[in-house]
Amino acid sequence: MKTWDVIIIGGGIIGPSLSIALRKRGASVLVVERAEPGREASHAAGGMLVDCPLETPAVLQPLATASARLYPEFAYELEVESGMKVDLRDFGTILLPSTEHIRHPALRASALLPVRLAEAEPALAESGFPLRPAFYLKERSVDPRALTAAAWKTAKNRGVDFSSGDEVTAVTVAEDRAAGVTTVKTAFHAAKVVNCAGAWSGQIAPHAFPTRPVKGQMLCLVMPSRALLKHVVRSPEAYLIPRSDGRLLVGATVEEAGFDKRTDLATIQRLHHAALALVPELRNARILEDWAGLRPGTPDALPILGETQTPGYYVATGHFRDGILLAPITAEVMAALIEGRVPEFDLTAFSPARFP
Ligand SMILES: Cc1cc2nc3c(=O)[nH]c(=O)nc-3n(C[C@H](O)[C@H](O)[C@H](O)COP(=O)(O)OP(=O)(O)OC[C@H]3O[C@@H](n4cnc5c(N)ncnc54)[C@H](O)[C@@H]3O)c2cc1C
Question: Which of 110, 291, 299, 345 is the most exposed place for a label (fewest CB within 10 A)?
């Protein structure tokens, strides 16, 4: 009977990133994905690497900051090992603050640099509100689709095994410990199992983690010229994320709509109008695509990271709006835990035991 050291459930960005960290530590790893790999939240994401205290919960800040710092190395390694580009961009973000941002104590405490739009991002200055307050944030962005594909390829090259099109129905437990997983097709055996099933994590027996889907609709335009926008732009109306190939992502809604991934015309038009109001030059931009994805939400909007009450059964989920940002640090802290070491960050606030 073939066994692995660790079985990971879910092939979004979190599962394969963790599989690579575990392989580096010498573990044999199987990733089980119920559909096509990397087609859920990690495919839908914008890829902003937001670690700004205005938008990051205080208790998550150390992990967010550490993960943002790990990104250049993380992305470089995936690019070299997969031979694929992940479009890590380092031009920073222009934040057009909301009223809540202006009132936020972190706005005064943090080193946000006011910018003049006419100099920093002329396309924005042509909007009807060029004198709006604007701040510069030193944040990067990445292409999550390319990143997830590169993580899969890297994991494969490093000898991680995959079973896709295979849904896990339960984690098997023997003598009160994790013993593997049961899928719709078969059963796989390992002494350690990690649930990285995103918004679906709570559906896998025996533990019903309180994850829920939080829908986000997005629109993708083609900029009339690649140089039109350099920075990520975040405003209360919409955010804009330029890619190096000339695409421009416009996002995103935050909706409680169950497992419904349909887009609706009125919402996509609202995003389109918001983009045009910010950057009038987009009026002739071609619409390439729209889509919706399901963020893995939790009751306190914090991830769930740690070992469950079943020894050998771990969980790394609930990354909500920050799973792309948090992938490198999640891989590091979870690999340390699974290896039996104390992770370098206190994970108490993210413990699965915090939910009854
Ligand atoms: C519109 C939108 C915009 C976003 N923008 C950003 C952003 O700018 N920056 C950022 O950091 N984050 C962003 N996010 C959040 C980010 O996408 C998620 O936090 C992250 O992708 C979660 O990764 P994951 O691997 O946990 O989940 P997923 O990518 O959803 O992967 C989970 C995988 O598990 C599989 N699975 C589920 N159940 C089973 C089962 N029973 N058996 C086997 N496999 C199973 C699924 O098929 C899926 O492939 C955004 C999300 C959305 C929707």
Answer: 299
Question: Looking at ligand 1, which residue's alpha carbon is closest to its atom 52?
Answer: 45
Query: Model pTM?
Result: 0.97
Beta strands 113-114; 93-95: pairing state:
unpaired
Cβ of 293 less than 6 Å from ligand 1: yes
Domains of the chain as residue ranges with CATH: 3-83+144-211+299-354 (3.50.50.60), 93-137+213-297 (3.30.9.10)
CA of 109 to the centre of ligand 1 (A): 32
Q: How many CB atoms lie within 10 A of CB 247?
A: 18
Checking if the pLDDT of 38 tops 80, the result is: yes
Measured from the Cβ of residue 36, the count of other Cβ atoms closer than 10 Å reads 11
- Cβ-contact 325, 67 below 8 angstroms: yes
Section 312-337 average pLDDT? 98
Q: Is 80 exposed, middle or buried (0-12, 13-18, 19+ CB in 10 A)?
A: exposed
Q: Is the Cβ atom of 11 under 6 angstroms away from ligand 1? A: yes
Q: Which stretches does DSSP call E strand in the chain?
A: 3-9, 29-33, 93-95, 113-114, 135-137, 161-164, 168-174, 177-183, 187-195, 212-222, 232-234, 239-242, 247-251, 286-297, 304-307, 313-317
Work out the mean pLDDT of the chain and round it to a whole number. Answer: 95
Mind listing the pLDDT tens digit for each residue in 275-299? 999 999 999 899 999 999 999 999 9
d(CA 248, CA 220): 6
Ligand 1 pocket check for 48: Cβ under 6 Å = yes
Q: Given a cut of 80, is residue 107 above it in pLDDT?
A: no
